[in-house]
Amino acid sequence: MTTLSSRAVAGALAGAAAVLWLSPAFAHAVCGDRIFPATLAIDDPGVGDELALPTLTWLPQNSGGSQEFDATFSYTKTIFPGFGLSVQDGASWQNPGGYGWKSLNTEAKYNFLCIPEFEFMASVGTTVIWENTGTGTQTQPFNVYQPVLDVGKGFGDLPKSLNILRPIAVTAELSESLPSQAWTNGNQNSTNINWGFTVQYSLPYYNSHVGEIDNSFFKHLIPITEFAFSKPISNFAPGTNQTTGTFQPGAIYMADTWQFALEAIVPVNSASGHGVGVVGELHFFFDDIFPDTLGKPISKWGQP
Amino acid sequence: MIRHSLIKIAASLALAFAATAAYAHAQLEKATPSVGGTVASVPEIRLKFSEGVEPRFSGIALAAEGGAAVPLGAPSVDPADNSVLIAKVGKALPPGVYTVTWHAVSVDTHKTQGSFSFTVKP
Q1: CA B113 to chain CA centroid, nearest Å
Q2: Which of A49, A209, B19, B64 is the most buried (most CB within 10 A)?
Q3: Contact B24, B111 (CB under 8 A)
Q4: A-chain residues within 8 Å CB-CB of B113?
Q5: Would you call A208 and B109 a contact, using CB atoms and an 8 Å cutoff?
Q6: B15·A53 Cβ contact <8 A
Q7: Using 50, 70 and 90 to split pLDDT, how confident is the model at A2?
Q8: Which of residues 9-48 of B touch A (CB under 8 A)?
Q9: How far is the alpha carbon of A166 from chain B, nearest alpha carbon, in Å?
C-alpha cells in the first residue's frame, strides 16, 4: 500500500508538472475535418502520443482450441512530428495452456501523408516481435519482422447531396510477417500476409457537419466494424495455409481525452476459432492530456 | 505480481490525469444556427466547442449558396465561456442555404476545422 501511495503521488506530481510547461502541441490521428479513432483489430493511420491500458480480450475458443483471456497495453511516444515508437505487451491465460507473458512487440511508424481536403492519411511502419521475451504459452525463440502500411479515408468530401454518407470513414492495413527463423523444433515458421479494414460511421462528425444530435452520449459514438485476416504465403506445412481472421462489430465512445471501444470477435471460419469473443479497450490521448510534456514529440524536427 | 503492477500503474495514471487540466482538440458540440437546421433570422454565428478556443487563431466564414462570402464581424469568445466562439452577422440574410466554415485553435494550440450548412427560410 505504501508503494502504491508513493507511486500515485509521483504520478500526480508528474501530472501537475505537465501543466506548467507550455509550448505547441501536435495532433493525433486528425486529417482535415476527420478524427480517426484508435481501432482494435488493426492500427489507425495516425501517429500520436497515446496509451491503451488495458486492452482486455476474451475468446471462448481460439484458433488453437483453447479458451483465452488476454490483458495487454500499448504505449506510443512521438519522437518528431509524424514519427513515433510504440511498445506493446501483456499477459495471456489459456485453458488448456496456462499463463504466458506475451513477446515484446515494438513498432516504428511514420505518418507520411495527410491530404486534408480528402481526409486521407497514410503511414508506414515496421513492427518487431522480439524473440525470447515471452514466457509459457507465449514463448517464441525467433524475431518476427513486419513492414506495415496503414491508410485512412474519410468521406466528408462527398457532395452535400450525399450528406448522410459523409460521416463514413474507412481505414485499412496491410502487412507481411517475416520470421527470422525458418524452422523451430521441426516446425515451419510461415511467412504470412496480413490485411484488414474498418468501416466507421462517426456520429461526432455527423453532429458537427450534417445535423445536430441532441443526445450527449450518441454524439460521441462511432459504430464500427473491423475485419482482420492473415494467410500463410510461404514456408508453411502442407494444408496449413488457410486464411484465418475475424470480423468485429462494435462501437467506440470518443471523449475529448480518451476513448472506450467494445467489440465482439467473430471468427470467419473454423480455422480461426469458435464462438463469439469480446474485446474492450480504454485508450488515452496523451497529446490531449499532457500537451506540453509527455504528449508532444521529443524533437520538432520536420515540423512545418 | 503483474496484476498488482498494472493496478499501481493505472492508479498513478488516474491521479495524474486528475491532477492535470485536461485540454484537447476543440470539437464542435453545438451551433447556432444549428447544424443542418432551418432558421428565420441569423443575428450571429455561435459555435460551442468541447474546449476553450483562442479567438485570435480561430475563425468563422459564412458563404451563400453560390459561394459568395457573407461579411462577418471579427470572431470573439463569450466572456462567460471561452469555449463559445461568436461572429456577428452584419446584415439580414435573404432566404437560402448557407455554409459555415470554421477553424479553431484550442487553448492548448491543437487545431481543428469543419463546416456545416443551415437554411434561412423565406
Answers
A1: 8
A2: A49
A3: no
A4: 32-33, 116
A5: no
A6: no
A7: very low
A8: 9-13, 15-25, 27-31, 34-37
A9: 11
Strands B111-120 and B38-39: parallel
Exposure string of B46-61, with b = 16+ CB inside 10 Å and e = fewer, is bbbbbbbbbbeebbbb
Q: What is the ipTM for the molecules in this complex?
A: 0.81
CB–CB contact A212 B37 (8 Å): yes
At which residue does the C-alpha cell 465512445 appear?
Answer: A253
Give CA–CA dist A265/A169, Å, rounded.
21
Which of A295, A259, A263, A290 lies closest to A277 in space, CA to CA? A263
* Average pLDDT, rounded, for chain A: 90
* Cβ-Cβ contacts under 8 Å for B29 (sequence gap 6 or more): A207, A208, A219, B48, B49, B50
> Which three-class secondary structure state does DSSP give residue B85?
strand
**Pick among B12, B32, B105, B106 to test the A interface (most A CBs inside 10 A):** B12
Q: Which three cell numbers stand for residue B31?
A: 451551433
Task: Name every chain B residue with its beta carbon within 8 A of the beta carbon of A207.
Answer: 28-29, 35
Interface touch A289/B20, C-beta < 8 Å: yes
Q: Which of these, A89, A65, A85, A63, lies nearest to A76 by C-alpha position? A: A85
**C-alpha angle A291-A293-A298 in degrees, rounded to nearest 5:** 105
- Kindly state the helix (H) or strand (E) to which residue A175 belongs, with its residue range: strand A168-179
Residue type, A27: A
pLDDT tens digits, A160-212? 899 999 999 999 999 999 999 999 999 999 999 999 999 999 999 999 999 99
Interstrand relation of A221-234 and B69-70 (parallel, antiparallel or unpaired): unpaired
Q: What's the grid cell of residue B54?
A: 483562442
CA atoms lying within 13 Å on the CB side of residue A69: 5
Q: How many angstroms separate the Cα of A295 from the Cα of each of A17, A81, A114, A224, A256?
A: 13, 11, 20, 27, 14
> What per-residue confidence (pLDDT) applies to A87?
97
Largest Cα separation within chain A, whole Å, is: 62
